[in-house]
Amino acid sequence: MVRGARQPQQPRSRLAPRLTGTVEKPPRKRRSRTEFALKEIMSSGGAEDDIPQGERKTVTDFCYLLDKSKQLFNGLRDLPQYGQKQWQSYFGRTFDVYTKLWKFQQQHRQVLDNRYGLKRWQIGEIASKIGQLYYHYYLRTSETSYLNEAFSFYSAIRQRSYYSQVNKEDRPELVVKKLRYYARFIVVCLLLNKMDVVKDLVKELSDEIEDYTHRFNTEDQVEWNLVLQEVAAFIEADPVMVLNDDNTIVITSNRLAETGAPLLEQGMIVGQLSLADALIIGNCNNQVKFSELTVDMFRMLQALEREPMNLASQMNKPGMQESADKPTRRENPHKYLLYKPTFSQLYTFLAASFKELPANSVLLIYLSATGVFPTGRSDSEGPYDFGGVLTNSNRDIINGDAIHKRNQSHKEMHCLHPGDLYPFTRKPLFIIVDSSNSVAYKNFTNLFGQPLVCLLSPTAYPKALQACAEAYGKSVKNIFEKSTVILPSY
What we know:
By secondary structure, the protein is of the alpha/beta class. The protein has helices spanning about 30-40, 55-75, 90-105, 110-115, 120-140, 145-160, 170-190, 195-215, 220-235, 295-305, 310-315, 345-355, 465-480; strands at about 240-245, 250, 270, 275-285, 335-340, 360-370, 370-375, 390, 400-405, 415, 430-435, 450-455, 485.
């Protein structure tokens, strides 16, 4: 997600984002190519000379915007995955073009239907791309309100049946677009704890996959069935159902609500340090996951966020006045989600977070990974002698849950040892190790005297903020010399 000259300011809960400005005039060097495509598109609609000039220009402008939006969207994959500044201007331009494209097709739908042959699945594809932009903007910024925007677009696609006619066309690639839309929609609903919608979507996706595999003899049948198995296992592994006094089911959330912040002990100081950045790493063998998001990562990322807030509805509350009474923007800690990273990938993201960590801020590292145990007894007891947690490699996993060194004279190279994190203790650090070999970090050394917390648990249920806040309240005064509490402040 990227901000730039025209970054999204406050998410809007309508399908069409606000559009400002007019459609850009296509450059001359691209016009010949667009005109050629236009001629091919409109050849079935009658003689080309009979088409009014205004309608020709409408189709030309639409083709230009559509082509430009695809170029920008495809370019998103080339943006650096780490760093919080490099992506912003490019994302802003992409948002700009897509908002113009969406508004343009709304204003000129009849002409585009008659002259361009615009189909409903094409409208759905544009809406789906905008939903993806909002979702990735959430991943880049950790602002949960953008999840609501992604949900609004995905939900509108379903309600307006934009993909309903895809199954009538003998084009398997279009059906795959529809299946991918369902998978993305499910991820967003999971993150928003909309479990009733998730169950409906899973049923619809199952029916769509069954129809797809029946009509087309494709090689990806096994992969789509695996997607269904993963999401079913994910839902079963994370039951969040609670009965209230009326015996009705209530969906609980791991996110921090304004009224749910834990109370602090008397004399504890808030605000000297704040949690600004987090690396959430999942690398356990055979763990339940969906879309490269393990259950542990899923719970942890929510625990580091506030509940989504509809800023527009807040502004419309009775008595809400200008400027002085406007709600301030709430910033969640920035997060990197790393699923089975290699050691070099993990270190690259860790170094980027360390470099960009603001003053008076804390970096959180959550390690949910398979334990790596040393074999034999070492003569020394240094930070590389007790193993650590697994990082990804191309070789086969040994003994399922535990990796053992084959050569006792060398340390395990596909492992994050406690000593690997020592250079980053130059800044305030909060480490949570959720592993079968978390004991390797029990003697973690604070070399530079900066605030440091290291929580170890082999079977921790990572409702992180609640657990961390509880740990702070009981023992942080013995760990932080300044009795500092790391909690997001409202």
